[in-house]
Amino acid sequence: MIPEAREVHLSRKDRKVLEACCRSPVTLQRDLKRARIVLLAADGRSTRSIAKEVGVQPRIVSLWRHRYADHGLEGLQDKPRPGKQPIYTKTTDKRILKLLDKPPPQGFARWTGPLLAEALGDVDVQYVWRFLRSHKIDLVARKSWCESNDPNFTAKAADVVGLYVAPPAKAIVLCVDEKPSIQALERAQGYLKLPNGRALTGQSHDYKRHGTTTLFAALEVATGKIIATHSKRRRRVEFLDFMNSVTATFPNRKLHVILDNLNTHKKNEDWLKAHPNVQFHFTPTSASWLNQVEVWFSILQGQSLSGTSFTSLKQLKEHIDAYVNAYNDRAEPFVWTKKKVRQRRFKGRRITQL
After folding, report:
1. Whether this model's pTM surpasses 0.85
2. Which long-range contacts (CB under 8 A, 24 or more apart) does 91-98 make?
Protein backbone atom coordinates (compact mmCIF):
# COMPACT_ATOMS: atom_id res chain seq x y z
CA MET A 1 0.00 0.00 0.00
CA ILE A 2 1.35 3.40 -1.01
CA PRO A 3 1.47 5.95 1.84
CA GLU A 4 -0.47 9.18 1.44
CA ALA A 5 1.40 11.56 -0.84
CA ARG A 6 3.17 14.42 0.91
CA GLU A 7 3.01 17.87 -0.56
CA VAL A 8 6.36 19.16 -1.72
CA HIS A 9 7.12 22.90 -1.69
CA LEU A 10 10.40 23.98 -3.29
CA SER A 11 12.25 27.15 -2.49
CA ARG A 12 13.92 28.99 -5.36
CA LYS A 13 17.34 28.00 -4.06
CA ASP A 14 16.48 24.30 -3.81
CA ARG A 15 14.87 24.33 -7.26
CA LYS A 16 18.04 25.80 -8.82
CA VAL A 17 20.14 23.12 -7.12
CA LEU A 18 17.90 20.26 -8.30
CA GLU A 19 17.61 21.60 -11.84
CA ALA A 20 21.38 22.00 -12.05
CA CYS A 21 21.72 18.42 -10.82
CA CYS A 22 19.43 17.22 -13.63
CA ARG A 23 21.42 19.11 -16.28
CA SER A 24 24.86 18.02 -15.11
CA PRO A 25 26.39 15.16 -17.17
CA VAL A 26 28.32 13.83 -14.15
CA THR A 27 25.33 13.39 -11.84
CA LEU A 28 24.88 9.85 -10.60
CA GLN A 29 21.70 8.10 -11.79
CA ARG A 30 20.41 7.66 -8.27
CA ASP A 31 20.78 11.39 -7.54
CA LEU A 32 19.25 12.29 -10.91
CA LYS A 33 16.14 10.18 -10.21
CA ARG A 34 15.74 11.67 -6.74
CA ALA A 35 16.01 15.22 -8.10
CA ARG A 36 13.43 14.52 -10.83
CA ILE A 37 11.05 12.96 -8.30
CA VAL A 38 11.14 16.03 -6.08
CA LEU A 39 10.82 18.48 -9.01
CA LEU A 40 7.82 16.61 -10.43
CA ALA A 41 6.26 16.32 -6.97
CA ALA A 42 6.64 20.09 -6.53
CA ASP A 43 4.72 20.55 -9.80
CA GLY A 44 1.76 18.70 -8.26
CA ARG A 45 2.17 15.38 -10.05
CA SER A 46 0.76 12.24 -8.48
CA THR A 47 2.98 9.50 -7.07
CA ARG A 48 2.01 6.92 -9.73
CA SER A 49 2.53 9.30 -12.64
CA ILE A 50 5.96 10.30 -11.29
CA ALA A 51 6.92 6.62 -10.84
CA LYS A 52 5.91 5.86 -14.42
CA GLU A 53 7.85 8.78 -15.86
CA VAL A 54 11.03 8.26 -13.79
CA GLY A 55 10.92 4.47 -14.11
CA VAL A 56 10.80 3.45 -10.44
CA GLN A 57 8.33 1.84 -8.07
CA PRO A 58 5.65 4.09 -6.51
CA ARG A 59 6.97 3.31 -3.02
CA ILE A 60 10.35 4.80 -4.09
CA VAL A 61 8.63 8.02 -5.16
CA SER A 62 6.74 8.14 -1.86
CA LEU A 63 10.00 7.61 0.07
CA TRP A 64 11.82 10.59 -1.47
CA ARG A 65 8.75 12.83 -1.26
CA HIS A 66 8.61 12.20 2.47
CA ARG A 67 12.38 12.52 2.91
CA TYR A 68 12.50 15.92 1.16
CA ALA A 69 9.39 17.19 2.95
CA ASP A 70 10.94 16.30 6.33
CA HIS A 71 14.64 17.13 5.82
CA GLY A 72 15.01 19.20 2.67
CA LEU A 73 17.97 18.60 0.36
CA GLU A 74 19.87 16.77 3.10
CA GLY A 75 17.12 14.17 3.12
CA LEU A 76 18.02 13.19 -0.45
CA GLN A 77 21.43 11.88 0.74
CA ASP A 78 21.92 8.26 1.80
CA LYS A 79 21.88 7.70 5.53
CA PRO A 80 25.06 6.25 7.03
CA ARG A 81 24.90 2.50 7.34
CA PRO A 82 26.57 0.74 10.26
CA GLY A 83 27.61 -2.28 8.22
CA LYS A 84 28.61 -5.62 9.63
CA GLN A 85 30.37 -5.45 12.96
CA PRO A 86 33.88 -6.97 12.85
CA ILE A 87 34.24 -10.26 14.68
CA TYR A 88 37.78 -9.52 15.88
CA THR A 89 38.98 -6.16 17.19
CA LYS A 90 42.13 -4.56 18.56
CA THR A 91 41.36 -6.27 21.84
CA THR A 92 41.79 -9.61 20.07
CA ASP A 93 45.16 -8.47 18.69
CA LYS A 94 46.31 -7.49 22.18
CA ARG A 95 45.28 -10.90 23.48
CA ILE A 96 47.40 -12.62 20.83
CA LEU A 97 50.45 -10.47 21.63
CA LYS A 98 49.97 -11.04 25.36
CA LEU A 99 49.81 -14.78 24.79
CA LEU A 100 53.03 -14.71 22.76
CA ASP A 101 54.79 -13.22 25.80
CA LYS A 102 53.95 -16.35 27.79
CA PRO A 103 55.76 -19.68 27.43
CA PRO A 104 54.13 -22.21 25.06
CA PRO A 105 52.10 -25.12 26.46
CA GLN A 106 54.04 -27.70 28.38
CA GLY A 107 55.93 -30.06 26.11
CA PHE A 108 56.05 -27.64 23.13
CA ALA A 109 59.14 -25.70 22.06
CA ARG A 110 57.30 -22.73 20.53
CA TRP A 111 53.89 -21.33 19.76
CA THR A 112 52.16 -22.23 16.51
CA GLY A 113 49.03 -20.82 14.90
CA PRO A 114 46.79 -23.73 15.98
CA LEU A 115 48.20 -23.61 19.54
CA LEU A 116 47.45 -19.89 19.77
CA ALA A 117 43.91 -20.36 18.45
CA GLU A 118 43.33 -23.22 20.88
CA ALA A 119 44.62 -21.20 23.83
CA LEU A 120 42.47 -18.18 22.90
CA GLY A 121 39.40 -20.37 22.53
CA ASP A 122 37.24 -17.97 20.49
CA VAL A 123 39.60 -16.91 17.68
CA ASP A 124 39.81 -18.73 14.36
CA VAL A 125 43.25 -20.00 13.38
CA GLN A 126 43.01 -18.24 9.99
CA TYR A 127 42.71 -14.88 11.73
CA VAL A 128 45.70 -15.76 13.91
CA TRP A 129 47.77 -16.42 10.78
CA ARG A 130 46.59 -13.16 9.16
CA PHE A 131 47.47 -11.19 12.29
CA LEU A 132 50.95 -12.75 12.50
CA ARG A 133 51.62 -12.01 8.81
CA SER A 134 50.43 -8.40 9.11
CA HIS A 135 52.77 -7.84 12.06
CA LYS A 136 55.63 -9.78 10.40
CA ILE A 137 55.84 -12.24 13.29
CA ASP A 138 57.51 -15.50 12.26
CA LEU A 139 56.95 -18.30 14.78
CA VAL A 140 59.21 -20.80 12.98
CA ALA A 141 62.34 -18.86 12.05
CA ARG A 142 65.01 -18.63 14.71
CA LYS A 143 67.61 -15.87 15.11
CA SER A 144 70.54 -16.08 17.48
CA TRP A 145 72.39 -13.08 18.82
CA CYS A 146 75.48 -12.37 20.83
CA GLU A 147 75.49 -9.39 23.15
CA SER A 148 78.91 -8.55 24.54
CA ASN A 149 79.10 -7.34 28.11
CA ASP A 150 82.77 -6.42 27.84
CA PRO A 151 83.23 -2.98 29.46
CA ASN A 152 86.14 -2.35 27.07
CA PHE A 153 84.22 -3.43 23.98
CA THR A 154 84.65 -0.14 22.10
CA ALA A 155 88.39 0.10 22.67
CA LYS A 156 89.07 -3.54 21.79
CA ALA A 157 86.84 -3.47 18.71
CA ALA A 158 88.45 -0.24 17.51
CA ASP A 159 91.89 -1.81 17.96
CA VAL A 160 91.00 -4.88 15.88
CA VAL A 161 89.13 -2.95 13.17
CA GLY A 162 91.99 -0.48 12.99
CA LEU A 163 94.37 -3.32 12.13
CA TYR A 164 92.05 -4.35 9.28
CA VAL A 165 91.42 -0.87 7.88
CA ALA A 166 94.84 0.71 8.43
CA PRO A 167 97.47 -1.91 9.30
CA PRO A 168 100.81 -0.65 10.65
CA ALA A 169 103.47 -0.04 8.01
CA LYS A 170 105.96 -2.85 7.43
CA ALA A 171 104.08 -5.14 9.81
CA ILE A 172 102.19 -8.42 9.33
CA VAL A 173 98.64 -8.70 10.69
CA LEU A 174 97.52 -12.27 11.42
CA CYS A 175 94.21 -13.71 12.63
CA VAL A 176 94.81 -16.87 14.65
CA ASP A 177 92.42 -19.44 16.10
CA GLU A 178 91.77 -23.16 16.33
CA LYS A 179 89.08 -25.44 14.92
CA PRO A 180 88.98 -28.28 17.46
CA SER A 181 87.84 -31.90 17.17
CA ILE A 182 87.39 -32.21 13.40
CA GLN A 183 86.08 -35.74 13.00
CA ALA A 184 87.27 -38.25 10.42
CA LEU A 185 83.91 -39.85 9.63
CA GLU A 186 83.50 -42.67 7.14
CA ARG A 187 80.11 -42.69 5.44
CA ALA A 188 78.70 -44.46 2.42
CA GLN A 189 77.96 -41.79 -0.16
CA GLY A 190 77.41 -41.19 -3.84
CA TYR A 191 74.83 -39.99 -6.36
CA LEU A 192 71.18 -40.96 -5.93
CA LYS A 193 68.65 -40.97 -8.75
CA LEU A 194 65.07 -40.24 -7.70
CA PRO A 195 61.98 -41.73 -9.43
CA ASN A 196 61.31 -38.37 -11.11
CA GLY A 197 64.72 -38.53 -12.80
CA ARG A 198 66.42 -35.98 -10.58
CA ALA A 199 69.94 -36.86 -9.43
CA LEU A 200 71.54 -35.57 -6.23
CA THR A 201 74.36 -36.44 -3.88
CA GLY A 202 73.60 -38.37 -0.72
CA GLN A 203 75.20 -40.16 2.18
CA SER A 204 74.20 -42.74 4.74
CA HIS A 205 73.14 -41.87 8.26
CA ASP A 206 75.42 -44.42 9.86
CA TYR A 207 79.14 -43.72 10.04
CA LYS A 208 82.42 -44.97 11.47
CA ARG A 209 84.64 -42.57 13.41
CA HIS A 210 88.40 -42.75 12.84
CA GLY A 211 89.51 -40.08 15.31
CA THR A 212 89.72 -36.30 15.47
CA THR A 213 92.22 -33.55 14.78
CA THR A 214 92.53 -29.95 15.92
CA LEU A 215 93.45 -27.45 13.22
CA PHE A 216 95.49 -24.38 14.17
CA ALA A 217 95.21 -21.68 11.51
CA ALA A 218 96.63 -18.20 10.93
CA LEU A 219 95.15 -15.95 8.24
CA GLU A 220 97.38 -13.21 6.83
CA VAL A 221 95.08 -10.21 6.52
CA ALA A 222 97.03 -8.53 3.70
CA THR A 223 97.02 -11.55 1.35
CA GLY A 224 94.28 -13.86 2.66
CA LYS A 225 96.71 -16.81 2.73
CA ILE A 226 96.50 -19.48 5.41
CA ILE A 227 99.13 -21.13 7.61
CA ALA A 228 97.74 -24.29 9.20
CA THR A 229 98.99 -27.22 11.25
CA HIS A 230 97.36 -30.22 12.92
CA SER A 231 97.50 -31.17 16.58
CA LYS A 232 95.97 -33.83 18.77
CA ARG A 233 95.05 -31.42 21.55
CA ARG A 234 94.23 -27.78 22.13
CA ARG A 235 96.39 -26.79 25.05
CA ARG A 236 98.65 -23.83 25.68
CA VAL A 237 101.71 -25.83 24.65
CA GLU A 238 100.20 -26.66 21.26
CA PHE A 239 99.18 -23.04 20.76
CA LEU A 240 102.68 -21.73 21.51
CA ASP A 241 104.25 -24.41 19.28
CA PHE A 242 102.04 -23.14 16.45
CA MET A 243 102.99 -19.53 17.19
CA ASN A 244 106.69 -20.58 17.03
CA SER A 245 106.11 -21.92 13.53
CA VAL A 246 104.28 -18.72 12.57
CA THR A 247 107.09 -16.47 13.76
CA ALA A 248 109.57 -18.66 11.87
CA THR A 249 107.55 -18.04 8.69
CA PHE A 250 107.99 -14.26 9.09
CA PRO A 251 111.51 -13.79 10.52
CA ASN A 252 112.50 -10.31 11.65
CA ARG A 253 109.01 -8.92 10.99
CA LYS A 254 106.71 -7.15 13.36
CA LEU A 255 103.62 -9.37 13.91
CA HIS A 256 100.24 -8.18 15.15
CA VAL A 257 98.20 -11.28 16.09
CA ILE A 258 94.42 -11.06 16.58
CA LEU A 259 93.07 -13.68 19.02
CA ASP A 260 89.88 -14.43 20.90
CA ASN A 261 89.65 -14.66 24.69
CA LEU A 262 90.41 -18.37 25.06
CA ASN A 263 92.41 -19.04 28.24
CA THR A 264 95.25 -20.66 26.27
CA HIS A 265 95.70 -17.40 24.36
CA LYS A 266 96.17 -15.34 27.52
CA LYS A 267 98.86 -15.22 30.20
CA ASN A 268 101.67 -15.89 27.75
CA GLU A 269 103.86 -13.00 28.93
CA ASP A 270 107.01 -15.15 29.10
CA TRP A 271 106.61 -16.21 25.48
CA LEU A 272 105.92 -12.63 24.40
CA LYS A 273 109.06 -11.41 26.19
CA ALA A 274 111.04 -13.97 24.20
CA HIS A 275 109.39 -12.69 20.99
CA PRO A 276 109.41 -8.87 21.23
CA ASN A 277 108.33 -8.54 17.59
CA VAL A 278 104.96 -10.18 18.37
CA GLN A 279 102.00 -8.28 19.83
CA PHE A 280 98.69 -9.91 20.76
CA HIS A 281 95.36 -8.12 20.19
CA PHE A 282 92.25 -9.66 21.77
CA THR A 283 88.70 -9.40 20.47
CA PRO A 284 86.06 -8.27 23.00
CA THR A 285 84.31 -10.87 25.12
CA SER A 286 81.64 -12.75 23.12
CA ALA A 287 82.80 -11.05 19.90
CA SER A 288 85.11 -13.61 18.29
CA TRP A 289 83.25 -12.89 15.03
CA LEU A 290 85.62 -9.92 14.69
CA ASN A 291 88.40 -12.42 13.99
CA GLN A 292 88.59 -12.95 10.21
CA VAL A 293 89.92 -16.48 10.52
CA GLU A 294 86.44 -17.47 11.73
CA VAL A 295 85.19 -16.60 8.25
CA TRP A 296 87.81 -18.88 6.73
CA PHE A 297 86.79 -21.74 9.04
CA SER A 298 83.24 -21.48 7.71
CA ILE A 299 84.60 -21.58 4.14
CA LEU A 300 86.67 -24.66 5.02
CA GLN A 301 83.61 -26.38 6.48
CA GLY A 302 81.39 -25.62 3.49
CA GLN A 303 83.85 -26.27 0.66
CA SER A 304 86.03 -29.05 2.08
CA LEU A 305 84.58 -30.91 5.04
CA SER A 306 80.79 -31.09 4.58
CA GLY A 307 79.62 -34.20 2.78
CA THR A 308 83.01 -35.95 2.69
CA SER A 309 84.07 -39.40 3.90
CA PHE A 310 87.42 -40.43 5.38
CA THR A 311 88.70 -43.92 6.07
CA SER A 312 91.47 -42.74 8.40
CA LEU A 313 92.65 -39.73 10.37
CA LYS A 314 95.64 -39.45 8.07
CA GLN A 315 93.36 -39.13 5.07
CA LEU A 316 91.45 -36.30 6.80
CA LYS A 317 94.66 -34.38 7.50
CA GLU A 318 95.92 -34.83 3.94
CA HIS A 319 92.54 -33.69 2.64
CA ILE A 320 92.64 -30.48 4.71
CA ASP A 321 96.27 -29.79 3.77
CA ALA A 322 95.43 -30.20 0.08
CA TYR A 323 92.55 -27.75 0.45
CA VAL A 324 94.79 -25.20 2.24
CA ASN A 325 97.35 -25.41 -0.60
CA ALA A 326 94.65 -25.00 -3.24
CA TYR A 327 93.07 -22.10 -1.32
CA ASN A 328 96.42 -20.28 -1.01
CA ASP A 329 96.93 -20.49 -4.78
CA ARG A 330 93.87 -18.31 -5.32
CA ALA A 331 93.68 -16.54 -1.95
CA GLU A 332 92.41 -12.99 -1.77
CA PRO A 333 92.18 -10.79 1.30
CA PHE A 334 88.82 -10.25 2.93
CA VAL A 335 87.58 -6.70 2.51
CA TRP A 336 86.47 -5.08 5.74
CA THR A 337 83.74 -2.60 4.76
CA LYS A 338 82.23 -1.62 8.11
CA LYS A 339 84.14 1.34 9.50
CA LYS A 340 82.34 1.49 12.87
CA VAL A 341 81.54 -1.30 15.32
CA ARG A 342 79.20 -0.18 18.08
CA GLN A 343 77.95 -1.88 21.19
CA ARG A 344 74.16 -1.63 21.14
CA ARG A 345 71.68 -3.07 23.59
CA PHE A 346 68.43 -4.69 22.55
CA LYS A 347 65.81 -1.93 22.77
CA GLY A 348 62.17 -2.10 21.84
CA ARG A 349 62.36 -5.84 21.25
CA ARG A 350 60.36 -8.52 22.91
CA ILE A 351 63.24 -10.35 24.59
CA THR A 352 62.20 -12.38 27.63
CA GLN A 353 64.51 -14.26 29.97
CA LEU A 354 62.96 -17.63 30.82
Report:
1. no
2. 92/120, 92/123, 92/127, 92/131, 93/131, 95/120, 95/123, 96/120, 96/123, 96/128, 96/131, 96/132
